[in-house]
Amino acid sequence: MSAKMKVLLTNDVEHLGKAGELKDVSGGFGRNYLIPKGFAVLATRGQIRQAEERMSAQRRRAEVGRKDAQALAARINGVSLHFSVKVGEQDRLYGSVTNVDIAEKLKAQIGIEIDRRKIDLEDPIKRTGIYAVKVQLLSDLAPVLNVIVEPEGGAPEAEAPATEDGPSDSDIPEL
User: First and final CA of the chain: distance in angstroms?
Assistant: First the structure.
């Protein structure tokens, strides 16, 4: 029967814990697997103190990152991006508007560079209209921006019926 030993995990170990955690493991598992593979070190007072300092620094960095993400979310939330595109029948686009296009337009419009993979667009946009698109900044922080896709030259206007008689009186300039 092997005695228990305290180890400090230096890497995440599946089914055991995350890096920086203090764990009680069997002596054989610690000596023969965790320590030689570099997944853990023997838990001494100095090692524990260093791990606590690393963890507190990591928490401070995470808090600063969260505040930055919240400020970014406040700038992104409710922004409207306008795309003028060529359209065919039934307002279908020639091509599509993708998350790459949205990321580029967002950078050009408000100067914020967002990784295209954070823009939650299930399928490329292939029709004109207004779309609400989420930007996944953190697991629980996803501001929404509006993507407005309209035909080139603005909304199609109803054209006046053409007459065969020539120009009407309103088309002739007065002298």
Answer: 112
* Domain limits, the chain: 4-70, 72-151
Give the CATH fold of the 4-70 domain: Ribosomal Protein L9; domain 1 (3.40.5)
Please state the pTM of the whole predicted model: 0.61
Distance (Å, whole) CA 98 – CA 119:
9
CA 123 from chain centre, in angstroms, equals: 15
CATH topology of domain 72-151: Ribosomal Protein L9; domain 2 (3.10.430)
The CA-based dihedral angle spanning residues 15, 16, 17, 19, taken in that order and rounded to the nearest 10 degrees = -110
11, 19 Cβ separation under 8 angstroms: yes
* Residue-wise pLDDT tens digits, 64-107: 999 999 998 998 888 899 999 888 888 888 888 999 999 999 99
- Structure-token pair, residue 150: 């309209």
d(CA 114, CA 137): 9
- How large is the angle between the packed helices 99-110 and 45-76, nearest 10 degrees? 80
